[in-house]
Amino acid sequence: MSDPKVVAIIQARMAASRLPGKVLKPLGHLPVLGWMVVRARRAELIDEVVVATTVDSSDDPVAEYCREHSTAWPSPAAACRTSSTATTRPPNSTAPT
Predict the structure, then answer these.
(1) Is residue 97 part of a domain?
(2) Is 2 a member of any domain?
(3) How far is it, in rounded angstroms, from Cα 78 to Cα 42?
(4) 2-6, 27-31, 78-82, 86-90 — which is least confidently predicted?
(5) Which residues span the domain enclosing 77?
(6) 1 in a domain, yes or no?
(7) Total-model pTM
(8) 93 closest CA partner among 19, 48, 8, 26
(9) What's the distance, CA 94 to chain centroid?
(10) Which regions of the chain does DSSP assign to beta strands (E)?
(11) pLDDT tens digit string along 44-57?
(12) Does residue 31 contact residue 24 with C-beta atoms inside 8 Å?
């Protein structure tokens, strides 16, 4: 029997009471979400990283970011999947995967 797959789920939505849109606010050369994905992918015990968001239109920018920066996009679920061993990174990322 094979080892169970470990999946990290990052919840991301644009609506926030204190700082709306913070998940895509720039933090250095990447948005906050980009850093979360990069760091989660570096974890040796995580096989897959999934960004989960809502189907609300206000979260479309999160879905678009995932489409542009992930290795796969499950449909119709509002999530982006990326392997911890994937070679793609957010643009201009100097952080190792």
Answers:
(1) no
(2) no
(3) 23
(4) 86-90
(5) 7-83
(6) no
(7) 0.71
(8) 26
(9) 17
(10) 7-11, 26-27, 30-31, 48-52, 79-83
(11) 999 988 898 898 99
(12) yes
